[in-house]
Design a protein that fits this description.
Number of domains of chain A: 1
Order of helices and strands of chain A: HHHHHHHHHHHHH
CATH architecture of chain A: Orthogonal Bundle
Number of strands of chain B: 0
CATH superfamily of chain B: MetI-like
Number of domains of chain B: 1
Largest sheet of chain A: none
Oligomer: heterodimer
Structural class of chain A: mainly alpha
CATH architecture of chain B: Orthogonal Bundle
Distance between the termini of chain B: 37 Å
Order of helices and strands of chain B: HHHHHHHHHHHHHH
CATH class of chain B: Mainly Alpha
Helix content of chain B: over 70%
Chain lengths: 295, 279
């Protein structure tokens, strides 16, 4: 055997087990699920029958699934831009201050690395009605009106979104700040010598240079909010996505279909619909930013 | 001009400090309120006091040392799952990263693309077939059942390959001329050069697996197999208005991460920045 052939053999030996893993635990299940979405698959059923697009028809005409898709869209539309704008603003402030960057950043990252289950329950506790909830107590001490937060179909989704913005902010701020620090100071100084004021430097130099990072984070956060599950599970009464399904996300709907009702085939179809939506949104964002960046 | 301590007063900078400090309070207050609540007993829990008038560790004793409490078991389960998956990921991902950056063989790029493309498939979809698979293979309610999806990380493969491709081939060839075997070269030459990447991967995997919720929730139905987040969710759902216990449980679930965070804060911040800039 030549040396090259020997090394190739070594490589294949190293790769064999991991390839079995990726095919068996990622691709295989995905294809299996796609196939099963066209059958009447259920955990308690013995025989399988082909039902065509029946499951897709069933979930796409289920008002609860449509409502959960609408809620998911609202999580993403309110949540992702809020995280991006807020964390960009905070990163610009951090870039401005001469001392204490690391300490502030540390505090902001803390929510991102702690278990979502734990922080969800902490917020649920803080969101309670007066006189039990600390946030309402503070609001009333400031002379403001108490809010219903998680108890109200109008406010619950916004409250959960706000918590997730609080969780994700440290992550995005850290990445924005790292990006800001890679921009050579000479560029903005040159612009200033040419007579540009700080605002022009920000709008014409800094923000365009941050475009690739903004794109990356917008896509990541979009996906993050479209997949929202743990927060909703832990912050709604008995993990039902209430009140009145007002916080139920598509991921929670799929979970309930599969693991409470055991309608696996319908859950599979619903999750493929969600997957298609995530892919389409990601693709559209790429397209949109492609135009903006001009290359 | 670094030696001068006198700075001109800039109102913009001062305002930045004010905003950043106010925001810090918002970011950290929930944690303080959680710990504060965990130090109150049932009679004090609804008092709006940041510093409990009679702080007590009784809640921690109740959850950690009382006969019949499941928290110690859940803590142990989480530790087993997080440590085992992290060890497995470190081993497989570094071997894969090395193979995919320093070996030449037909199909190399296709295999790399195949692995990285799995990053696009969200866990939320895979849990359904994973559960069917676990039932068929009798993996439900076992450590292996909870851990198997996380034994290799596609992101880690990507990360390790990036780092290992920066190692000069000459260095490896020199070691080969010395007559060292391929595996020894990997252990003695390659791994020491990528320890920062290994550390990042280890920390993030540990955090991710410690915090994981959806799959452990499905993979374990018996309380003795719950991980800490699943146990906490279940416990809290049944605790009713015993908020002093819920906040104590949340503090227990968070404690190991805060320790990891304080020890490895530099690597964590660098790691987050790395995922953003390389992605």
């Amino acid at each position: 055997m030549t040396l090259a052939a020997k090394r190739a053999t070594t490589a294949y030996i190293f790769l064999a087990l991991p390839l079995v893993f990726f095919l068996g635990v990622r691709f295989g299940p995905m294809i299996y699920m796609l196939a099963m979405s066209f059958t009447d698959w259920g955990l308690l059923r013995k025989e399988l029958h082909f039902v065509g697009l029946g499951n897709y028809k069933a979930v796409l005409t289920d008002p609860v699934f449509l409502k959960s898709l609408g809620n998911t869209a609202r999580y993403a539309i309110f949540g992702a831009p809020s995280v991006i704008v807020l964390s960009l603003f905070v990163a610009l402030l951090l870039d401005l201050i001469p001392k204490g960057k690391a300490a502030y950043r540390l505090i902001y990252v803390l929510p991102y690395i702690t278990p979502i289950v734990a922080v969800s329950w902490v917020w649920r506790w803080m969101f309670l009605q007066p006189p039990l909830g600390v946030i309402n107590t503070i609001l009333m001490a400031l002379g403001l009106q108490a809010k219903e937060f998680l108890n109200s179909p109008q406010q619950a989704l916004q409250s959960i979104t706000a918590v997730n913005v609080w969780v994700e902010m440290g992550y995005c701020t850290t990445i924005f700040l790292a990006g800001l620090q890679t921009i050579p100071k000479e560029i903005s100084e040159a612009a200033k010598i040419d007579g540009a004021n700080s605002r022009q430097v920000l709008l014409k130099v800094t923000l365009p240079l941050l475009m690739p990072i903004t794109l990356f984070l917008t896509i990541m956060e979009g996906i993050q909010f479209l997949r929202i599950f743990t927060q909703v599970y832990n912050m709604s009464f008995q993990a039902q996505g209430g009140p009145l399904d007002s916080t139920k996300s598509a991921a929670l709907y799929i979970y309930q279909k599969a693991f409470t009702n055991f309608e696996m085939a319908q859950a599979a179809s619903a999750s493929l619909v969600l997957f298609a939506i995530i892919m389409a949104v990601t693709f559209l964002q790429l397209k949109f930013f492609d135009k903006k960046m001009g290359y | 001009m670094k030696s001068t301590n006198v700075r001109p007063f800039k109102p913009g900078v001062a305002l930045a400090y004010v905003i950043l400090s106010a925001l810090s309070v918002v970011m950290i207050f929930p944690f303080i309120w959680m710990v504060s609540s965990s130090l109150k007993d049932a009679t004090q829990i609804f008092q709006m006091k940041l510093f409990p008038s009679a702080p007590t560790l009784e809640n921690y004793r109740h959850l950690l040392f009382r006969e019949g409490s499941k928290f110690p078991q859940w803590f142990l389960n989480s530790a087993i799952v997080a440590v085992s998956t992290t060890a497995s990921v470190l081993f497989f991902d570094s071997v894969l990263g090395y193979t995919l950056s320093k070996f030449n063989f037909p199909g190399k790029n296709a295999i790399f693309l195949l692995i990285v493309s799995t990053l696009m498939i969200p866990t939320e979809m895979l849990v359904i077939p994973w559960y069917a698979m676990s039932r068929a293979l009798k993996w439900v309610n076992s450590y292996w059942g909870i851990m198997f999806p996380g034994m290799i990380s596609a992101f880690g493969v990507f990360l390790m390959r990036q780092f290992m491709s920066t190692i000069p081939d000459d260095l490896l060839d020199a070691a080969r001329v010395d007559g060292r075997g391929e595996f020894m070269i990997f252990i003695t030459v390659v791994l020491p050069l990528v320890t920062p990447a290994l550390a990042t991967l280890a920390i993030f995997n540990f955090i991710g697996n410690w915090n994981a919720f959806l799959w452990p929730l499905i993979a374990a139905s018996k309380p003795r197999m719950f991980t800490l987040p699943v146990g906490l969710a279940n416990f809290s759902g049944e605790a009713g208005s015993d908020w002093h216990y819920i906040m104590t449980g949340a503090s227990i679930a968070m404690a190991p991460l805060v320790v990891v965070f304080l020890i490895f804060q530099k690597q964590i911040v660098k790691g987050i920045a790395m995922t953003g800039l390389k992605g």
